[in-house]
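so my prof wants the structure for this chain in the tokens format not the other one, which i didnt know existed until like an hour ago. anyway here's the sequence
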Amino acid sequence: MALELPLQVHDIRIIFSEAAIARTQNHMEIVKALSLKNGLNLRFINRSRRYYDDYYNVRIEVECDVPVFLAEAADVKPSTLSGPNLTYRRNIEKMGVPSAEVSSVICLLIDQFEQNALSYLAAPSFPVKFIRTELAKMEKHLGRKGSTCPF
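here's what i got, hopefully its the right format
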């Protein structure tokens, strides 16, 4: 009888994990996708949620996968990077939006992002700059792990 308990607990964890995954997948809605001049594809994902009564936290996650093979152009050893892509990700959001204004605020946030950042992201040099920056962040993070902190 004691042997069945871990199996039951394990089954509950699996069901909970599947429910959490389904909930996350249902909450992901790509509201806009752009193909940039430099060959990258930009996605605007709606991560908005209701947080109080009729008010929403409107949040758009902007994502773009940058292929690691472009690292060769940046004089970076691809073996130092893991996976086929590095992901550019930014969040843009506005709090306290009444439900009647959610759609218009989503459009406004996307338009503002496009006006401010699209020319940078679409530049031919962006993938190489992004790969270099991300690699520098990784190296800095790995360097900190080995050091001792006085605090």
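also thought this was worth mentioning. Helices lie at 4-26, 102-122, 126-146.
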